[in-house]
Amino acid sequence: MAAQKVSEWRKLPVSLTELCIETTLRCGQSFRWRKINEQWHCVLQGRLISLRQDPTHLHYKVTWPTTTPTKHEDPQNFGAEDDTPSLLHSYFALSRSLTTLYAQWSLSDANFARRAPAFTGIRILNQDAWETLISFICSSNNNISRISQMVLKLCTHYGPYVATVEGEAFHDFPGPEALAGEGVEAHLRELGFGYRAKYIAETAGCVAQVYGEKWLLRLRDPGVPALGATTEEAGASVKKEEGAEEKKKPVDGDSKVDLDEDPPTYKKAHAALLALPGVGPKVSDCVCLMGLGWGESVPIDTHVWQIAQRDYNFGGKGGAKTKTLNKTMYEAVGDHFREIWGPQAGWAQSVLFTANLKSFSEQAAVVKKEGVVKVEEETQEETVTTAEAVTKPEKKKGVVVKVEKSEEIVATTSAVKSRKRKTVAAEVLPKSEPDAAVQTTTTRTLRSSKRIKSQV
């Protein structure tokens, strides 16, 4: 095997508050990034990109395939002709100020303001629309780990090989033609895709043989160029290729609007995607947000539905009355979030979605506001405040909050990590009344009588 062509490490200036790859690459947007030896690796547009990060810079290096160079690189002169910096800038959508967006969302939503400080740097990736479409068809009734395994199988069996890192082979994502071939559905079933195999094969056939690959580009937000596209390429993507074979025009299923003649909108793009096999409202919204650039798109899965019920009072008090997320409720939740978060509501949603994942449960946000300290304990999916702990101690479990001398100090005992909790205490020490802690301390003892008896 010929030696791989690998660039030196280079860096882009970006702070952790603007981009945190440790969170962004793990929160269910892209399923192809693999972490090996503290570095993240993924194939993007024909090259293997490796990433690491420090507080002020994103470091990257590129491994090129040993085949004929593409228009994206010059293996003999890394740097001048290498478009990887602009590709990463596009992929991570670095033109948007995340700090500004977080500030806007925090002003308009108190719940976001409480949770966001522990989850900074979460950006919506500007991914390839085709990859996003197939990846989220795989997400139906699935979790991030299993989706990642399915996507890996798709790349390994149908995508072109690019490079190897630490003994692990990396392939690019397969195109529509590769997944539309004869026998693909049966093979995917053998690989464990279940009913999703049929949807993947049929959708690949629709895109490859009926609509054409350029169809997805015509669904994009015109203000957000496709991944790696130049200004000229972005403008040309909405035009028919001269001399190309005439294909069936994609049509918005609800309004019957020809997408070749009318400018795309989020609603039109969402409706058009629903015509594809295996694509429901949530999958369509995921593709709109992460693959087509529609920031207003708000995908609502079980996690977001839990958030809507728990934190925004959807579905009745405490979410107890309405357990099923029907079409009407789905649209109502999305519209509510768009109203409070604005045109980039999907970006804000991704922050709360990440905060709700068990894999990020150790990240607790601590915010001090007007003398009240709020502790978010994601493992219990509840928020405890000192005021609530004092007045309603019977509803809180296993969190000890102590505030002293107006400092932003929160001590959470190790009992939080155990379900066998015995004591909850919240102490508030006013500056002017240092002895008031005795009066404002609320203590609940569980099974204390048994302990006392055993000591006697």
TrEMBL record:
Principal location class: nucleus
GO MF term list: 8-oxo-7,8-dihydroguanine DNA N-glycosylase activity; class I DNA-(apurinic or apyrimidinic site) endonuclease activity; damaged DNA binding
UniProt xrefs under Gene3D superfamilies: 3.30.310.40, Helix-hairpin-Helix base-excision DNA repair enzymes (C-terminal), Hypothetical protein, domain 2
Keywords: DNA damage, DNA repair, Glycosidase, Hydrolase, Lyase, Multifunctional enzyme, Nucleus
Limits of the HhH-GPD domain: 138-350
Catalysed reaction equations from the record: 2'-deoxyribonucleotide-(2'-deoxyribose 5'-phosphate)-2'-deoxyribonucleotide-DNA = a 3'-end 2'-deoxyribonucleotide-(2,3-dehydro-2,3-deoxyribose 5'-phosphate)-DNA + a 5'-end 5'-phospho-2'-deoxyribonucleoside-DNA + H(+)
Protein known as: DNA-(apurinic or apyrimidinic site) lyase
Species name: Pseudoneurospora amorphoporcata
